[in-house]
């Protein structure tokens, strides 16, 4: 069992006030809060180890390099990658996806097809559209249903020998739906296509096993799992990372440089040009340690309780509709009040110290499907409480009274 009162003490921001009220932070799907252990690790790095890595013979540089490479091994272990060099440090999910999309420019031709899902974040749509423009490949979309689930029978029909790549998120950030990625991966492999899974929204809640999934690429951002912003990872199977050309040129990524020809460094350095976010990489490891110490089973169980409680309480409000009603979902509640713009509700909740997200959540195609401008999204983390959900429900009732 997870002790939420103790856990809350690790997060200094949770004891601040907003607009004279105790902060209720329900925007976890946009970014998670940072525990003291991670904040301390950032201070420790800059106080004791700050140096550039992989280059210096001096002690500080070697210590910083060791810490950075240890963090890579922690991430390898967490995702169960076969080799630590299959973990590439990036600035986040968006960067990771662009790295893969750019690499595939060299591998695709006219007539090839890329399949994406209707539940994608914009960062997982735009790079593929750009890739299609560059290569002449076509983009196909797995449709969704009213519950906010992908329709697998339609996916089956889209697959063919022309399919070269399939992209979907593991969990939808707008609705919380957990997608059947095991099925998606297995079916794509039957036609010889590679699969990239966007795990940005899954990794705060579950621990993916990339070997077990047999996924080709898996990406995530540190800032959604108690780590720093501007930090993320790309897992790629060795054979795929070797096939892709480098994304950016610069220091760190070369073996030998002359004006006639440059040869590239081995993995992972081939994809890590320039001085990286060293502190960010190290404390990404700290954040993963922190979450593992609590345990992903305990986190999932507790968040499911919050989800059930929140769903039930919100549905007691007349005229409130929840979007994303799959049986397989995480602790995201996307909803609207009949006849009221989500933005107005969000503003009133903010006055009450309650942070929710309003709008299209970088997933406009989903909003178009439901024919709505956006939703109010409350997303819960393991440090939230039922009392906070009560405050949200009271706030929504108040907003409804004031706005109707
Ligand atoms: C947040 C998010 C992203 C983008 O992550 P960045 O850290 O902004 O690069 C992509 N996909 C999903 C599903 C997300 O939730």
From TrEMBL:
This protein's species is Seonamhaeicola marinus
Q: What is this protein called?
A: Cysteine desulfurase
Q: Give the protein's cofactors.
A: pyridoxal 5'-phosphate
- Give yes or no: UniProt keyword Transcription: no
Q: Which UniProt keywords apply?
A: Pyridoxal phosphate, Transferase
Q: Which Pfam families match?
A: Aminotran_5
Q: Which reaction does it catalyse?
A: (sulfur carrier)-H + L-cysteine = (sulfur carrier)-SH + L-alanine
Q: Where is the Aminotransferase class V domain?
A: 24-392
Q: Which NCBIfam families match?
A: sufS
What are the TM regions of this chain, as residue ranges?
A: none
**GO annotation (BP), single:** cysteine metabolic process
| Catalytic EC class | transferase
Any GO MF annotation of the entry: cysteine desulfurase activity
Biological function: Catalyzes the removal of elemental sulfur and selenium atoms from L-cysteine, L-cystine, L-selenocysteine, and L-selenocystine to produce L-alanine.
EC number in record: 2.8.1.7
**Superkingdom in the source lineage:** Bacteria
Family from the record: Belongs to the class-V pyridoxal-phosphate-dependent aminotransferase family. Csd subfamily.
